[in-house]
Sequence to fold (265 residues):
Amino acid sequence: MAVTVTERFGSRDSTEGDSPSVELLFNVWGTSNDIVAKSNLLAASPLLYDGLVRQSASVEQVGPELWEGSIQYGRRKKEEETGDSNYQFETGGGTQHITQSIQTRGRYAPAGENAPDFKGAIGATKDGVEGVDVTTPQYNFSETHYLPVSIVTPAYKATLFSLTGRKNASPFRGFAAGEVLFLGARGSQRGEEDWEVNFNFSASPNVTDLAINDITVAEKRGWDYLWVLYETAEDGDAKKLVKRPIAAYVEEVHYDGEFSLLKIG
Fold:
């Protein structure tokens, strides 16, 4: 089930004066994992709101796979100058639907009978393999750069648009090619001198020699999609028809992008 984030009624309470603040309130649906809930909350909320900077985020579980989230905004601690940068990161888990386990740790049947061996297929039925949603390693990070107006041209904004949803074609920020996905950018102009631009990324590790029963997947890059083909076979010991993996496929679902075009070093 996909995680959904929606803004709640009563959101956007604000305070003006020497210490201005704004609070945005959200509902987060579709996960029982607090780290996943907070990660999706941060991804759905702006870094900047009404001239204020996102300063804190919190989640509270209020029901099965339902969380209430809060984002607090306040004045930045110092006035950054053109050319300055700051960075934020968060490690957490993304959600992935899998149909094959790492290994089957036990098979049990009534006395005198044998439990069918599905070779790691999860939730196998006579019609197919249902699988399960699991948490996978994911590293989310954002960078705020203060770029001169000479860089943030209409052509540059179009470049940001075209790179959104692409993965790094070359090593980037210490990650290998294929591990970083550009999630997009948000910018606001400060006077006539520069722009404050926030860049959002997510990283997922490349893997090699991935074992799927008797199949070895030589390479799967972080944002590739892996799926498994199953066939119906007979388990001689259990005398049952079972679903077993016979092939694995690695699909490229995101285009490569040249992140040097972001002009953030």
Q: What stands out?
A: The chain is about 10% helix and 50% strand. The mean pLDDT is 87. Residues 31 and 65 are 5 Å apart (CA to CA).
